[in-house]
C-alpha cells in the first residue's frame, strides 16, 4: 500500500492535475472566504463552510478522475492487478494519496482564519466551530474522493469519470434540499438522513455531530469497498 500511495502522491506533482487542484482550491477558498466573511459585518463562517461543500463538487474530480481511468487508458492496470499488493491496499493507497493532497491544501487555506481574527471588530469567530466544521469538511472531502475513485474505476474516460463523480456528489448534497417539495413526512426524514448537506448544517451551528462523522466515514468505506469489488471482478474476468 505504501508504494502505491507514494507513486500516486508523487504523480500529482509530475502532471498538472495536482498543481491545478491546489491553485483552484486556494483561489476558490480565498474568494469565498473574502466575500462571505471578511466583507460581511458579522463575519459569519456558516455560509463560508456551506459554500465550500458545494465547491468540492467541482474541485474533487480534478484529483480523482485519473485514479484508475488513467491506469486503464495507459494499459498499466494489469501491472497493478498482478502486483503483490492486495486490491484493498491498492485502492486505499490511491485514496490516501488524493486525501493527503486535499487535506494539506485545505490546511494551507486555513491561514484565512488568522485574518478574520485580526480584522473582525466584534464577535470573534468561535474556535470550536472552526475545528468542528473543518473536521466535517475534511470528512466530506474524503467521502467525495472515495466516490470519485469508485467512478474512475468504472471507465477509462477521465471526462466521464469527472462528470459521473459530480453527478453523484450533487445528488448527495441535493437530497436534503428536496424536502420542501415532498409532502410525505417519512420520505423527508429519509432524505434528511442520507443528505450530506443536512448533516453538515449542525456543524455550522457549533454542534459537533458524531453521528454525521460516522455517516461520512461510512460513505467513504462503502465506495472504497465497491471499488475493490469492481477490481475483484475485473481480475477474474
* Helix count, DSSP H or I runs of 4 or more residues: 12
Termini distance? 24 Å
Which structural category fits the helices and strands? Answer: mainly alpha
Number of domains: 1
How many beta strands in the DSSP annotation? 0
Strand content: under 5%
The largest β sheet comes out as:
none
Low-confidence stretches: none
The radius of gyration computed from the alpha-carbon positions, rounded to a whole number of angstroms, is: 19 Å
Helix content: over 70%
Shape: globular
The arrangement of helices and strands along the chain is: HHHHHHHHHHHH
What number is the mean pLDDT? 84
Structural commentary:
With 237 residues, the protein is mainly alpha-helical. The protein has one domain. Helix content is 78%, strand content 0%. It has twelve helices and no strands. It has helices at 2-14, 16-38, 46-64, 69-73, 77-81, 87-109, 112-119, 127-152, 158-174, 185-194, 196-204, 210-236. Helix 2 (16-38) packs across helix 6 (87-109). The longest helix has 27 residues, at 210-236. It is globular and about 55 Å long.
Amino acid at each position: 500500500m505504501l508504494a502505491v500511495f507514494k507513486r500516486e502522491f508523487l504523480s500529482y506533482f509530475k502532471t498538472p492535475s495536482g498543481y491545478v487542484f491546489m491553485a483552484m482550491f486556494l483561489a476558490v477558498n480565498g474568494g469565498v472566504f473574502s466575500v462571505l466573511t471578511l466583507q460581511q459585518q458579522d463575519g459569519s463562517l456558516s455560509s463560508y463552510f456551506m459554500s465550500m461543500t458545494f465547491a468540492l463538487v467541482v474541485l474533487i474530480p480534478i484529483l480523482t478522475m485519473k485514479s484508475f481511468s488513467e491506469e486503464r487508458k495507459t494499459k498499466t492496470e494489469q501491472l497493478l492487478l498482478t502486483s503483490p499488493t492486495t486490491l484493498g491496499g491498492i485502492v486505499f493507497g490511491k485514496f490516501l494519496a488524493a486525501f493527503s493532497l486535499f487535506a494539506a491544501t485545505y490546511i494551507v487555506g486555513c491561514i484565512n482564519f488568522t485574518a478574520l481574527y485580526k480584522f473582525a471588530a466584534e464577535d470573534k469567530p468561535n474556535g470550536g466551530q472552526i475545528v468542528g466544521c473543518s473536521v466535517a469538511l475534511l470528512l466530506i472531502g474524503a467521502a467525495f474522493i472515495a466516490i470519485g475513485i469508485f467512478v474512475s474505476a468504472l471507465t477509462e474516460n477521465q471526462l466521464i469519470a469527472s462528470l459521473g463523480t459530480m453527478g453523484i456528489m450533487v445528488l448527495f448534497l441535493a437530497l436534503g434540499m428536496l424536502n420542501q417539495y415532498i409532502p410525505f413526512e417519512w420520505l423527508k426524514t429519509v432524505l434528511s438522513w442520507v443528505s450530506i448537506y443536512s448533516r453538515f448544517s449542525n456543524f455550522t451551528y457549533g454542534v459537533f455531530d458524531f453521528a454525521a462523522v460516522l455517516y461520512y466515514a461510512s460513505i467513504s468505506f462503502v465506495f472504497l469497498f465497491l471499488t475493490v469489488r469492481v477490481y475483484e471482478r475485473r481480475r477474474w474476468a
